[in-house]
Amino acid sequence: MTKNTLFQYGTMQMLVEGLLEGTLPLSELLKHGNIGIGTGDGVDGELVILDGVGYKIDVSGPAVKLPEDFKVTYADVSFADYHKFKSYQNVELVEMLKDVLTKNNAQNQFFAILTKGVFKKIRTRSSKKSHKPYPSLEKIAENQVEFETENITGTMITYYTPPVFQGVGVSGFHNHFLADDLSFGGHVLAATMKGVVVSIQPIESFKLHLPVDNQEFLNANLTDISKLDNVISKSE
Amino acid sequence: MTKNTLFQYGTMQMLVEGLLEGTLPLSELLKHGNIGIGTGDGVDGELVILDGVGYKIDVSGPAVKLPEDFKVTYADVSFADYHKFKSYQNVELVEMLKDVLTKNNAQNQFFAILTKGVFKKIRTRSSKKSHKPYPSLEKIAENQVEFETENITGTMITYYTPPVFQGVGVSGFHNHFLADDLSFGGHVLAATMKGVVVSIQPIESFKLHLPVDNQEFLNANLTDISKLDNVISKSE
């Protein structure tokens, strides 16, 4: 089942509750997948893993290659085994992703989507690393920056998570982008495709590893799951 | 990571939404664990897996050994690797489980608990198999039976699931019992221990497999997660 397993480290609830410590070295994460998305210690940028290499897009803009000892707080990775689904031209991101999901009847399963080609317009977000004691999520949101560019060639990695997993992961679509020339990337907020090829990989198994050696995680009060509703939809 | 992985097949949401078809043969489930709990096709009884053998407690009362082709709808299994934690005498189930969880600071992780010994009093529930088209959960609840007995020797298998996984699994404690002589068992509603030994196994990874080959599951509308709040607490 390895090929079609989504491996997730940590939960979205952790981030919402300010448990931001990076506890998994990138080298360990890469044992569970060669493609993926995530964030680093103290919300240290937006991560993209492509062809087994980790990249970070932080507030400075361009992507940087990460060392193997880079500490990851939250990540979703898989072993790339996509097959081509369809080409799209001149379409909004949300419209395109909904079409992919609907045509594959995939709304109740985990689903990996890979979009490669020219993006006519794309707006992304990235974060600045925070240090202990970690500030509130509101403070962190203040330190986020947004980037926008046009006519850029690159790869967008998307994982779809069914609604019942809200708080465990990001329910719905979660997209990170990396430009081919590494000049641009981040957590995708909006985009318009110019001409892209979409490949898909249905996921059969979801494997979650929690930071069970981290005392702050073990000691946290994580009983109030109603807090997840607002924050997650805002952060998407 | 195999040893300390909880493998779950299906979600609680599926049961709530009436997706009751058994889609995984017991023989397949046993590849992922030799101890566990679950339910069968059409909520066909309460399952106990012990030492790699599957048992069903249905409305008739005693446990029966299951054939390998028995179809499972929902299950949690793991590979037993418990270590002794503590002996308990003359204590209520809920009090005992809370003590185990608190003393192990395990409220934020998946946690397996095994209780062996003499139960002074125990009340269990079991269900009657339904057939397609499956009735509503209310109708199924009407077909449930409760059993009660005293001074019985057996094994209780418990999985603790953190709150954020509500709807994915049964958040909190989920306990199934099997008497040593197979005369009694089921989903535990209440119990008082006479003298038992509790062993524990902290779980590091949670691996979920969804019935992605089942068209009814794929086609279902599973977007209303608010429905989970009531039904899950009622079914615990």
From TrEMBL, chains A, B:
Pathway: Polyol metabolism; (R,R)-butane-2,3-diol biosynthesis; (R,R)-butane-2,3-diol from pyruvate: step 2/3. It catalyses: (2S)-2-acetolactate + H(+) = (R)-acetoin + CO2. Keywords: Acetoin biosynthesis, Decarboxylase, Lyase. It comes from the Bacteria. GO terms for molecular function: acetolactate decarboxylase activity. GO terms for biological process: acetoin biosynthetic process. InterPro entries: Acetolactate_a_deCO2ase (IPR005128). Gene3D superfamilies: Hypothetical protein, similar to alpha- acetolactate decarboxylase, domain 2. Its EC number is 4.1.1.5. CDD domains: acetolactate_decarboxylase. Belongs to the alpha-acetolactate decarboxylase family. This is Alpha-acetolactate decarboxylase.
